[in-house]
Structures are given as C-alpha cells and as structure tokens.
C-alpha cells in the first residue's frame, strides 16, 4: 500500500484527471530515467506513467545522451553513477545538449555529498536510494511547479515570486507571511470578517535530525510542506515561519472551523509514514498546533501571532501531537 493511502480518499482519482492537473497548473511532461538497474527503471517508469507522464528510459549515460540528442525531455532522473559516467559528467553533457532540461540525481545516503555537488553544478534535486515512491512524487511535483514558475519570467512575475518563497520547502517565507497577514488583517477589519491563524511545530524534530542527519530532516520538512499545501483551501496561505515551525493563515474562518482544519492536518501527518520515524518518541512523526482567531482572540496582527504561539506552547506542554486553542486564561 502506498504511503499516501492516508490522504483524502479521492486524491489518486483527482490527481489523474485533466481538470485537477489544469487547476493546479501542472503541465504534461516527458521524463527520461537513466539507471543500469532494470528493476529501478521499471518501477519508476510504471509509477510515473500511472501519474500520466510520458516516460522513456536508458541503461547508461551514453545511451541517455544519444536519446537527448534526438528527443526533448523536460526532466531526466539519473543515478549518480551510471556505466561510463558519473553524475557530474552526465549532468554537464545534458546541460550542454538540452539546457532547458531539469536533472534529478538518484543516490544512496553514502553519496549524498556528491549529490549536493551535482546540485551546485545545476541539478534541481536528488532522490535517495532505496527508492521511496512518495519522495519521487513530491520531487517530481515540485520540479514541475518550479518549471511553471520559471515560465512566469516572461510575464515579469518571476523575481517577485522567488523573493517570497522559502528555498527548501517552496512555501511562503517568513517575510511574505507577515505581508500576507497585514493584508488579510486589513481586509478582515474592513469587511468585519473572521481571520484565523494556525501555528504548528514538528514534535521532537531535533531528535529526528540528530538521529537521521540533516538531509533526512530536509526531506521530512519538504514532505510536511507538501502535505500542508495539498490539504488547505486554494485561498489559504501556508508559510515556513522558521526552522521546523509553520504558519497557516485561514481568511474568513472563525475559531471552530480553524480547529477542524487543525485537527485534520494533525491526523493526516500522524497517519502518513515518514522515513525513519521510528527514532522518535512513540515511533511516529507528529505535529503540535496552536489556534487563534480575529476578532475573538486578538485585535491586531501582533496579538494574533502571539496568541496562536501561546496556544502552540500549551500544546507542547501538554504532551505534543495535539491542537490547543487560545483563551485568555493562557495569559494568567
């Protein structure tokens, strides 16, 4: 059973429909897989074709270069070491033949330093072996979304958008969050609407990082960001507030509705498998969430943040993996 089996029941059906892809602005792409292991090529080909992509494969760097010289591929997924070439050499050849092609490197944990080196040389991301299908889907999705964002250069929007985004998770960054909160608070006051804020934190994330290493921690942050983004409304905002803390802004929804959202997100995260989560207390990846709403809990932006953060602190004090709602007694 796939690791996303705990996401909404209609997720797989929606993902494979033209309407869903168009609503998310996900273009159809051609992908080339390069690996000398036939099992890896077959698994990735089957999974990505099921997602609706056009997929081809090559067993070596030389055959991949030959295909790239004759055909266009949006994305190349290649092992860091293929017969005759290492990751850097193949990357350089791909970029020379097809500069617009995005390259994703596959590597074992023992070769992550080399994978990072390939990213400095122009690769867009890396996938760790043994293959985690959920990780592949997230990285492909992120790469496609980034390609779409790059198309906005011609419309004069790219650099503005790039300055608003957190580099690791591709959520809104801390500065953008404050700008959005200013705007939504002004709108809520003008039209007398509710405005709710969720502040959430990954439980025991330092222990996860210490046990598994920062590359694994980064993958967990990316995965959590993807889950949050996929499970909020299109006009809600999710931001990486800092470190392992995230903020979700829910316009026009009061505290009761915000609590429903918070509990749903907490449940989805708890039920989703994260790599090597067994190192955590209780053996499960989880989040704590604090909830506050305007105008019930706060009269301005700073109070809303402060009170949501106080509720988050209470959630952690009470044992983590829970949702806490702000009330005035927290100030006593």
Your description of this structure?
The protein is an alpha/beta fold and 332 residues long. It has two domains: 3-155, Response regulator (Rossmann fold); 174-331, Alpha-Beta Plaits (2-Layer Sandwich), CATH 3.30.70.270. 47% of the residues lie in helices and 19% in strands. The strands form three sheets. The protein has a five-stranded parallel sheet, with helices on both faces. It has a five-stranded mixed sheet with strand order 9-10-8-11-12, with helices on both faces. It has a two-stranded antiparallel ribbon with strand order 4-5. Helix 3 links the parallel strand 1 and strand 2 (54-58). Helix 10 packs across helix 11 (214-230). The radius of gyration is 21 Å and the shape is elongated.
Strand-helix topology:
Blueprint: H1 11-15, H2 18-23, E1 30-34, H3 38-50, E2 54-58, H4 61-70, E3 75-79, E4 81-82, E5 85-86, H5 87-97, E6 102-108, H6 112-120, E7 125-129, H7 133-151, H8 158-162, H9 174-191, E8 195-202, H10 205-212, H11 214-230, E9 237-242, E10 245-251, H12 255-271, E11 287-294, H13 301-317, E12 323-325
Parallel strand pairs: 1-2, 1-3, 3-6, 6-7, 11-12
Antiparallel strand pairs: 4-5, 8-10, 8-11, 9-10
Keywords:
single chain, 332 residues, alpha/beta, Rossmann fold, Alpha-Beta Plaits, 2 domains, five-stranded parallel β-sheet, five-stranded mixed β-sheet, 13 helices, 12 strands, disordered N terminus
